[in-house]
Amino acid sequence: RATMKSLRFISAEAFVSKAEFARKRLSSVAHNLFPLLFKASYLLEQGEVIHDLVENWPLADFNMGKLLGTTVDYEEDLSHRTCSVCLESCLTGLKDYVLNHPSPYVKRLKVVDLTGIKDVEVQFCECKKTMGRWARTQLLSKLCLELLVYLQHTECNPGTFEISINVLIDLFVTERNYELVVQALLKKCYCPLKICCVAFRSDNLALQKFFCIIKLTDPSLLRKLEIVHNVRLEMEHLEILFNSMHFPLLMSLTLPARTFNVRRFTATDERMLTNIGEKMGEMMQLTELSMPFSILTGRIQKLLSPLKTPLKMLDVSNCSLNHADMAYLANSFHANHLETLDLSGHDIPDLYPSIFFKLLSHSSSVLRSLTLEDCNIQDTHVNMLILALSPCQRLQEFKFLGNPLSSQALKHLFTFLCELPMLKNVEFPVPRDCYPIGITYPIDDASLCRFDHQKYESVAEELNLILLQANREDVKASTPLFGSYDAAVQETNNELGAYLIKSFKETLEKFTTSLNKMS
């Protein structure tokens, strides 16, 4: 459905569509029309006009999320368009804003907020070239350093050195852009463009480098911290991190796989876990916690009970939770506030069906996203699952890949899912009867694609028909075999692959050395 445009917006489009004409006349444009012209230029991918609008920005703030979001003149939200042409023009325009001496406007700009940009899988911009979070981090750091070099070697207007603009950004740092970002952060106090890190993600980075850069970001301003792939952070390192730095505004924390492993716990480890729980309790804003693939058997209460603010998002997938852990979750004050919950990798039907019922009933009034992948949910459990999901009338997303369900059971489940009024996204498994007889669950990566694709397509069609007949065309149903889309992984997959090969090679060399010593 085409989004309605006001006459003002149509006029703005007509104005910016002739780039040369628009650029020459910007000096006579009223200040309050700049946001309108910016969104129109972004929609039409008029890079040169975007550059000049930012270079001459007459207002005190520049907020990408608000500028590209739903507006009175044009309701469509463009903040998910990470168009390379537009974003590069925007950032280079910002650099030139600092250097633009004969600007007809008084330089009022104090805050640039880039955090409203959303990275999504499908891009609608015509150029089809995206600039993801990693590339935005790289370009902003590069421009800040270039600006410093220029100011050092060129005679500039004295007023240039008085410019101070806070640039709010979600940084994404890996080994490949580490040095550049570190240099930009180290020299931040001398640069008119001040990088202010609101959210920080780190992948493929040595632990020492992670500790170095996290200090430079100013942890007191961080709202989101994601330490994800190939950062070898273990419990003792997490304790050092929390003891040496304070995160008063932190709302969201993601820890890498195997941060915790209670199977080899000593008395020291127990003390450490208690201390980490207490430190998290001091983070009064913390409402999102993700710690997948850690072994936390019997320790969830120790870790979460010190929290003073209820969690809205919890990911404890593949954390080997036992009955006591689930009972704590179901009875804790967190249960009534959980909007996003991931319990993947736990044998829910066999180990704790009644506790699971209780947990869902407590969170049902707010629960929006539920993930139950590889939970051994079989055909005999479908009625139980339907009963548990029935109160969850606000559920928008349900993911249950990797469960041994037949096509018949899936049809039964989909008939029920049509009744959830707010449901928008479903990720369902390849039916068990599409795989060879005797397949064992969880299915290993090598066997994952060895199913009858023709039969799967036929079942998928039938499932979509169930949605269609219930007038639920608004529900997207899919089977992403290797997990949901991750924009950060997609952008840095080459580096991630190289890092994994390097790690495998090192492990192989150590193993060979050990064998040689033995012989």
UniProtKB/TrEMBL annotation:
Q: Which domain of life is it from?
A: Eukaryota
Keyword Repeat in the entry? The reply is yes
A cellular component term (GO) from this record? cytoplasm
InterPro entries attached here? LRR_dom_sf, LRRC14/PRAME
Enumerate the UniProt keywords alphabetically: Leucine-rich repeat, Repeat
The family classification in the record reads: Belongs to the PRAME family. LRRC14 subfamily.
The molecule here is called Leucine-rich repeat-containing protein 14B
